[in-house]
Amino acid sequence: MLKLKVRLVDIESGGKSVALVNKDDAAELGVHTTDRVNIERDAKKQTFMVEVTKNMMRPGELGLLDNPFDNEEALDGKIVTVESAKTPSSSGYIKKRLLGTKLSSEEITEIINDVVYSRLSDIEAVFFMASCYNNEFSEEELTALAGAMVSAGRTLSFPGKDVVSKHCIGGVPGNRTTMIVVPILVAAGLTVPKTSARAISSPAGTADVMEVLCSVEHTIDKVSFIVNKVGGCIVWNGAVSLSPADDKLNQLRYPLRLDPRPFLLASILSKKKAEGAKKVLIDIPVARGGKVDNEEEGRTLASQFISLGVKLGLEVEVVLTAGDHPIGNGIGPALEAADVLMVLEGKQEAPLDLRQKAINLAGLILEMAGKAPRGEGEIMAEEILFSGRALSKFQEIVHAQGGKASVASADVSFGKHKQRILADADCTVFGFNNNQITKIARSAGAPKNKGAGIYLFVKRGTKVKKGEPFYEIYSEQKEKLDFAVAVAKEDNGIVMERSVLGIVGGAGIG
Amino acid sequence: MLKLKVRLVDIESGGKSVALVNKDDAAELGVHTTDRVNIERDAKKQTFMVEVTKNMMRPGELGLLDNPFDNEEALDGKIVTVESAKTPSSSGYIKKRLLGTKLSSEEITEIINDVVYSRLSDIEAVFFMASCYNNEFSEEELTALAGAMVSAGRTLSFPGKDVVSKHCIGGVPGNRTTMIVVPILVAAGLTVPKTSARAISSPAGTADVMEVLCSVEHTIDKVSFIVNKVGGCIVWNGAVSLSPADDKLNQLRYPLRLDPRPFLLASILSKKKAEGAKKVLIDIPVARGGKVDNEEEGRTLASQFISLGVKLGLEVEVVLTAGDHPIGNGIGPALEAADVLMVLEGKQEAPLDLRQKAINLAGLILEMAGKAPRGEGEIMAEEILFSGRALSKFQEIVHAQGGKASVASADVSFGKHKQRILADADCTVFGFNNNQITKIARSAGAPKNKGAGIYLFVKRGTKVKKGEPFYEIYSEQKEKLDFAVAVAKEDNGIVMERSVLGIVGGAGIG
């Protein structure tokens, strides 16, 4: 036990309780980096993760970040009592799981809580995630994982309402169905408190696209108010923090772009549960080399979603969709927002594939919710769309989230720098390399620059003559446009039929 | 690409190249925390790991820790070019390995190099270590791992000399054989450049005990000089940094106290290889519930050491020893140093078990090195010890490492506060709870306070009368003594025969 003098340090803790200790004091306390200490002041005790420093802290000093003791007087310069603290039991559970033992629901719950309250280090949390690769999660463990993620966050609730939701596991550029499906469902009398992601490695997430038209960062109380008022919303999930455990674990699987199955399932369904949804449609795009490689893998994943749903009290249906080409014409926040609005407005130029996919998905949910008989959901969705009721509802939602009252596609503007990428010979478009299309759009500035991205003139099967455009790149800055054009000239992301004929075996295509 | 103004930040990087970036600039660059950026200045380019900050860095600022560009003029306030950098290929190899694929030697080597030069994040390195639990290391992978650990650090070399070494995988309090074995071997004409650890969770490591008598922190060049002069050394491995890869990975397995087998094997033998040793004896203490639980496990581990040794060009022999009770009477740096010196001095009070174990180990190495015929090594070791030549050689080593010229056990002093722990009834000592003995010694201040620890009056089988002492606790501070005594009164760490008789089945004892 030591008495140390607090020095507040201007470092962001990222929500972690970190104590910086000089190496001599650390030796005296018998602690190393990632060990824990209890710090006591005025009979209040709190646990911190130790970071041993050589020079930054002098002996006798204790570095604390932000102001860890809430609502307390200034701590800087005060003397506190520091002693070595026990490692939480959850650390032992993680080791046990990594070495092959299944855990109880209580143990899983304790791990998730300790992750949320930073009582476990990142290193320990990574070992927990990694354990699923050698020791498959049992149904009990998976259910506990999802349940603990729900309990660790706040939840929405709309008593007496038919609450539904949807989720797409992603990986398809332009695929902005949510912004069409939600207003159709709400217009049909359903309640849809939809929370969506921002892009991580794609040109745009639904939250980025919606943000072109209105704010997507609302507190959970504001979200509740909006949904009660207009029947639905489309907001950024990061601002409502329905599942802080999931938010933390996602950061840790990001560097390797890992999608460990139990964490994927628990992450998605825990957020749907926290939205207050009772019925959920999951869209799984299937594409060779994509997140889900083939139909069999898709079916397995689908059955896992359905059975976890049962455990959580969610009625889940799953649809496998084609994920090997972009949906819609626009790729990038503003370009996708314009696509969505044109579909809602019933415009001639609206992309047919986006409209059709949105109608399919909305139709299925209308059937799940009992609004339409089985087999007739699409007709109902189409009617709501054509009648303009979906557009009105969408405009209400945008307005409730702080956007313009009667938003229209004409309001959306794109980056003023643009350049077309042309065919250098007559050809037929066989398909798209989604990763390359994504790279070009991101090089142009998406998703940070809302007006940046790609507008496609071609679909699979389109015949193109030499000199005709495949697509147009938009950018808000000349340099970024030049960079994106250079990337596109390296590889334009279009797979042509003639190139297929030229490759024996055609490996990697389709 | 962005131009940002450098702000040097007073944070210890721990050897990592970290770039602190404001969230707006990060979005502009399209990077997230744990992504990488290239920073260029005056045509020099270096890669940094991104840490996104909300407020700590203002937009336009780039926070760098320490001075990352070596030998350069002051960077603070200078403008540098920052752009998003590719993830190193090694990150992909780790993902591949975690998902079940074996890696090539080249891939393993690249991972280890990227760990050493901080091109991989801690998160990625943890996933690499965790991958060994679901995807066993092949012989090729294990060999590459150990080889890469050697190549990534500096190595010692003593041409024309018979270089030998030893290593104990640990877990036994008081077991300080190295300080007796090394001088016996050197006195016999062998070269022993021994590097040893400090305690992490034990009351003392060999480096901590040696440090009671002389400095153990020497540069690799100094170590080379000492060994060439006197034939051997006993120094702290952390100061010579023979295997920086291993040092980094050890930090990551510390929080869960993990001993992933391939990393344990590669860690130990890579250090022996880097010492320049040709022949190595490994001591594996076996104890129920210890690092190695039973003889079978010990034999498996032994064969792995031997076959990895062959791959690395090391002749390895392994001895399984009893690990269920302390060796020697003293536990704690000064108390163990006194034990060692008394054995070397041939004192009546010297602990017999420590002397016998040291003679056994030294004898085996003398036989391996061809200094004694098989079966006669112990006799030779005993002669060298009894003749006083081992003591003289030890004194030479201590002196060469900056200690007193003719160090003796009488020079060693213990903590001035002490208290005996007494038997509360007549009994026979059945055994020891090593973990509890360790806890008591550490509570008294070991290893930080050199004079703190325990002096045992009893061994297994000792008959003790009520009121006679089991051991004496030493401490440099009264409060620590009181604390250690309180811990000992909770559980004194002694297992008595009468308590065995009282427990049906005797679970957990022996």
Question: Could you please describe the fold and organization of this structure?
Answer:
Two copies of one chain form a homodimer. Chain A contains 19 helices and 18 strands. Chain A is of the alpha/beta class and 510 residues long. Chain A folds into four domains: 84 residues, Barwin-like endoglucanases (Beta Barrel), CATH 2.40.40.20; 48 residues, no CATH class; 242 residues, Pyrimidine Nucleoside Phosphorylase, Chain A, domain 2; 86 residues, Pyrimidine nucleoside phosphorylase-like, C-terminal domain (Aldehyde Oxidoreductase, domain 3). In chain A, the strands form five sheets. The first copy, chain A, has a six-stranded mixed β-barrel. In chain A, helix 2 packs across helix 3. The longest helix of chain A is centred in the middle third of the chain and has 18 residues. The first copy, chain A, is globular and about 75 Å long. The interface between A and B is large, with 43 and 43 residues.
Lateral strand order in the biggest sheet of chain A: 1-5-2-4-3-6
Q: How many independent structural domains of chain A?
A: 4
What is the fold-level CATH name, i.e. the topology of the largest domain in chain A? Pyrimidine Nucleoside Phosphorylase, Chain A, domain 2
Dominant shape of chain A = globular
Output the structural class of chain A: alpha/beta
Q: What is the CATH superfamily label of the largest domain in chain A?
A: Nucleoside phosphorylase/phosphoribosyltransferase catalytic domain
Please bin the fraction of helical residues of chain A. 40-55%
Distance between the termini of chain A: 65 Å
Helix count of chain A, per DSSP?
19
